[in-house]
Amino acid sequence: MAAINRDDVAHLARLAHIEMSAEELDRMAGELAVIVDSVKSVSEAAGDDVPATSHPIPLTNVFREDVVGHTFTAEQALSGAPDSDENRFKVPAILDEA
Amino acid sequence: MTDTNELIRLSAAQLAAKLAAREVTSVEVTQAYLDRIAAVDGGERGVNAFLHVNTEEALAVAAEVDAIRAAGGAAAEELHELAGVPIAVKDLIVTIGQPTTAGSRILEGWHSPYDATVVKRLRAAKMPILGKTNLDEFAMGSSTEHSAYGPTRNPWDLDRIPGGSGGGSAAAVAAFEAPLALGTDTGGSIRQPGAVTGTVGVKPTYGGVSRYGAIAMASSLDQIGPVSRTVLDSALLHQVIGGHDPFDSTSLPDPLADLVAAARVGNVEGMRIGIIKELHGEGYQAGVENRFNESLELLKQAGADIVEVSCPNFQYALGAYYLIMPSEASSNLAKFDGVRYGLRVLPEDGPMTIERVMGATRAAGFGDEVKRRIILGTYALSAGYYDAYYGSAQKVRTLVQRDFEAAFAQADVLISPTAPTTAFKLGEKLNDPLAMYLNDVATIPANLAGVPGLTLPGGLADEDGLPVGIQLLAPAREDARLYRVGAVLESLLEAQWGGPLLDQAPPLVETLVDAKEAK
């Protein structure tokens, strides 16, 4: 497995929507390289015949009756929003060319 | 009326008995705890276990319980056993009427419009909620130093960490600021703080307690559980919060076993208790190892059959955990984007687009450890690396489960130290993430496999006089075994010590007064 470098961290930070300063990228790249190195043995632990486990105690087909249960009022749903207008979340421009 | 100082040192079970016998009122008990919080929690060298104290509501619930008891009749008869016994709630669990921060700036001042299922159950039992306890931001850490609101201090030594992420809940209980608390455990966040503060904590079987309303870090690992000073108290609280919840699709449909009865069985004769070869010895502090061996000896004397089991794949558990947990966390934390709740930060210059607002908000709102884990998780899940990292880690999870299955074929309960060391100094490991992660080496396998685990105090380490935790593990859905063995070991140890281990902790009020006078 390849080591993680500063360019990787910059790319990942963009994907994860976290702005990072040059200093932060340098530090994070160093710390993550150590962590990634320490976990790489995991890829050698199991053979192809071992199935993956995504949940410790899998439950299948957890259904309920299709009836309306508890729902929030618009007021409750918006109560923690940084900005709202006309019963909706209000955000800055979604497209760059605004 | 009982002396206040005596009241706060009673166990929840003892308090419940006194309340039922009307020897004391819930208002007196609740006020005694609120007074204790005021005396030891604040200030520069205070414990800082609480992020919010819920004075008014707690006293109102206490007064309601007292009025029902005073009136007598059917309503008094129907009161829950723990009615009027106060409790603290980890601030990762949402509550109506109190802020929920998850220890993060990104949720500062946020109020949930709903209660977590476990909180609803506390309210139904009429347990006064004293407040919300401190934690590492979004439960990411082993020291509570990653809280955006300052670290919690260990009541045994105020210069040391109380463990994490649930250091606030464990310290509150250890400092007699609450008789009970709720915690959450993703890789050890209930058990490791329990170990280093000399308290009891239980991570139930995955799905045994509803996670609805616990702000998710890693959904396939997270579990809410009880924090207390005695094994019986954890069983009592587990019984309140456990059982099926239709609001959590991973909640087990099984009926809850009688855990309180299990804590009262009182014998381990003929039980097979397995020492996990890989979870002691090298890498474990000598004092931890000594106390662990003493506990084994006591169990043996009580008639348990001590066997040794091997779980060879546990060596990969920590690595697998630090791929699975960040992967799930990076996805779960995507919702904190400055749109629906919490902080919104506008970029200082350039175009004001939603993408840039998200980037600035998450940069300002998240601390370093949260950012590290989000980046690591994004990496582990990215195209080209997914199979090698996340896929391999999920396979290790299968291997760890198989190790447990083989071990539980030879033993009814497994035993290990809970943490490799006693509490370290504040700041000691803050800039070394990997050293911090190693604290969870003994607790993580249970989360990967979904099996239940309990920690109880095993004594003080010879070299530093700090608490050591003993961990018990049982097969999934067999939480009752933990309470049975835990209660027996607790009584054997307390007979040696001549009382609870916390009786040996330094008196906090005097320590704090001394610190003030020294200035």
Automatic annotation (TrEMBL), chain A:
What InterPro entries does the entry give? Asp/Glu-ADT_sf_sub_c (IPR036113), GatC (IPR003837)
Q: What class of enzyme is it?
A: ligase
Q: Which reaction does it catalyse?
A: L-aspartyl-tRNA(Asn) + L-glutamine + ATP + H2O = L-asparaginyl-tRNA(Asn) + L-glutamate + ADP + phosphate + 2 H(+); L-glutamyl-tRNA(Gln) + L-glutamine + ATP + H2O = L-glutaminyl-tRNA(Gln) + L-glutamate + ADP + phosphate + H(+)
Task: Please give one Pfam family short name.
Answer: GatC
Q: What is its EC number?
A: 6.3.5.-
Q: Does the keyword Nucleotide-binding apply?
A: yes
BP-aspect Gene Ontology terms: regulation of translational fidelity; translation
Q: Which GO molecular function terms does the record list? A: ATP binding; glutaminyl-tRNA synthase (glutamine-hydrolyzing) activity; transferase activity
Which domain of life does the protein's organism represent?
Bacteria
Q: What does this protein do?
A: Allows the formation of correctly charged Asn-tRNA(Asn) or Gln-tRNA(Gln) through the transamidation of misacylated Asp-tRNA(Asn) or Glu-tRNA(Gln) in organisms which lack either or both of asparaginyl-tRNA or glutaminyl-tRNA synthetases. The reaction takes place in the presence of glutamine and ATP through an activated phospho-Asp-tRNA(Asn) or phospho-Glu-tRNA(Gln).
What quaternary structure, including any partners, is listed in this protein's UniProt entry? Heterotrimer of A, B and C subunits.
Q: What is this protein called?
A: Aspartyl/glutamyl-tRNA(Asn/Gln) amidotransferase subunit C
What is the organism of origin for this protein?
Answer: Pseudarthrobacter psychrotolerans
